[in-house]
Input
Amino acid sequence: MNKQEFTITVYTENHIGLLVRIATMFSRRKINIESLNTSPSEEEGIHRFTIVINEFEEVVRKLARQIEKQVEVLKAYYNTNDEIVWQELALYKVSTDEIAEKVQVERLLREHGARAVVIRKDYTVFETSGHREETDKLVEVLAPYGLIEFVRSARVAIIKASHGFHEKLREFEEAMPGEEQIENEFLNKQEGIFTM
Amino acid sequence: METLEVKKETVAKQTQTINGSQAVLEAFVSEGVDTIFGYPGGAIMPIYDALYDYHDKLKHILVRHEQGGIHAGQGYARASGRVGVVFGTSGPGATNLVTGLADAMIDSTPLVCITGQVFAHLLGTDAFQEIDVINITTPVTKWNYQVTDANEIPAVLAKAFYIARTGRPGPVLIDITKNAQLQLFEYEGYTPCTHIRSYRPKPIVRKEFVAEAAELINKAEKPFVIFGQGVILGKAEKEFKAFIEKAGLPAAWTVMGLSALDSDHPLNVGMLGMHGNYGPNVLTNECDVLIAIGMRFDDRVTGRLDKYAKQAKVIHLDIDPSEIDKNVKATVGVWGDCKETLPLLTKLVEEKQHIAWVNKFNEYMAEEVKEVIHEELNPTDDILTMGEVIRNLNELTNGNAIIVTDVGQHQMVACRYAKFNQSKSNITSGGLGTMGFGLPAAIGAKFGAPDRQVITIIGDGGFQMTLQELGTIMQNEVDVKILILNNQFLGMVRQWQQLFMDKRYSFVDIASPDYVTLAKAYGIEGQRVNQREILHDALSTMLHHKGSYLLEVMVGKENNVFPMVPQGCSVSEIRLK
Output
């Protein structure tokens, strides 16, 4: 097995300091974080980390367990790219004169599904969203026309096979988990999506 | 009915105005804390001020350095099985705790450490003695939290104790800003924490995996149990004994598991790992089913991983799911508290005796005795060995004492040869290998188990790292026996330099002060011994002395600890010389 891109989804309590606690799990093992996003989740008060790394599956599995072990982490999942739907948002600042004058630029932008967010006399900001290759491509084609500024967000991802966190959270909130709850499900190798 | 309800309401709403510091101490009293190890300073002064009024309920031991304080807290926790409690001030007080936190983290020791912090409005301003203790201690704590409002204190402390002692135990640090310590608030009483939704200390035991494990054990011809501190932390010594006795399983221990099973138990086949016994190491690579209980396959236990027990099916019982498959792939992983899983397993295993297989361990032991142990314990030349000191000690304690060791050659020798007949008796820095651990940990152990004899065995290197705690022993009249095995070298490093670095003894030649005179300065009686004829009597004098005592034994300068699995070698490549 080679290194490949994995997306780790972590459901956590919203606590100061937890970002560091999770980040050190990676830095301690000298693993570079390609992208990291924190956001609210489908559950009020529950935070969702989306972390992208390039690693061996075995490393990622162990890492996910270490993350899930942290007191304020409810659950950690990890998925390969074909198990998720994901997007990244990118912003591009270009000179308004350039695009006004050159029809070519306008066509390029349209081809790449870019949308103008701000138009000013001196510059225009476009946005696109998509996979990295897509947003990268536009950087490449805009370069000859003087791309002033470029920024891309972290990946956000939805797990295809997930039923959301509502059920899980209810189980976690019970003082004693019910019999039907397969708590150490990571031992259950039949699980469709990778999970602990 | 209605009136009853109303009454309940008023009871629940009865509050009391107290400050944050008092709330901390109230939490301690409710949690059954009896001893605190600490050192005051500016940012924790309000708590110390409150402590002044709690002296009848809470004993505070003033240490000489915060590292000493936290190691004492560890010793207390390990000897008593309860949570150790430690105080330190902000800044350097907090950073001095870091080594102890790391040690407690890797050895799963339950601690609650309270550090004072500068006023909340000064956070981030580089105020006097301000340090970002939460971020510094994040990788070395099971949980940490900064309190800036006194109202949070009761619930946060309840959480701290719950997290520290449940599941796989570990250190918790609570940093409390000075304003929160001083702040008056309406205190509604203390409610212990019993549940945190994001934290599952006690997993549900999957019976099907227990059944699979039992089946493997029942089919095994050469089953071998290796156990660690999980048995002690789970208070499952009886359950463990019942399990190995029913299935007739030879069992070997890690350094951290030592004393969970009586030394003279017929199924106790000895120590694992780098300086462990010959049989357990060699036969790890011959057994057909390896049953690991409450241990984490540390590299000092496994040696070279890709040549470790490759022939065996591995059953791994652990409370921490991240340990299963971490270093050694388990054929069957049984996640759970071994206090629960072991009885389930015992019920399913067949009653058996593996006489020939157990004998194999005995044969290896006989060879080890002939090649190594006999000479180490009964040397024929003039030079004293560490092993013979331990042998003499065993004859006097009959395995009843708590032995606290430091780190190095003496630690390995003590673990190899000291006899134990009750659990929680071997206290040492296993995972982190913290030199300087021994003396302060022994102080804590004495407070954790006041009725037991506490002996700390320390090398001349480690003793010089935390000898300031002699002051703590003096002031509090702590009855610990200090046994320094002085080889005038940093012996373990020297041994490696001798074996693997062409005897290039680079900075391992360490001079010692006159320890007996030093002890005398602290009002501690002592003696130095360098002759075999008086060794036994000197040890006896030490043990019978009323109060603390220091005995320095001059041992061979260039003695080595054997057997040894050299780094990077397989356990079956263990060397006898």
Q: What stands out?
A: Chain A has two domains: 4-84+156-187, 85-152. The longest helix of chain A spans residues 57-69.
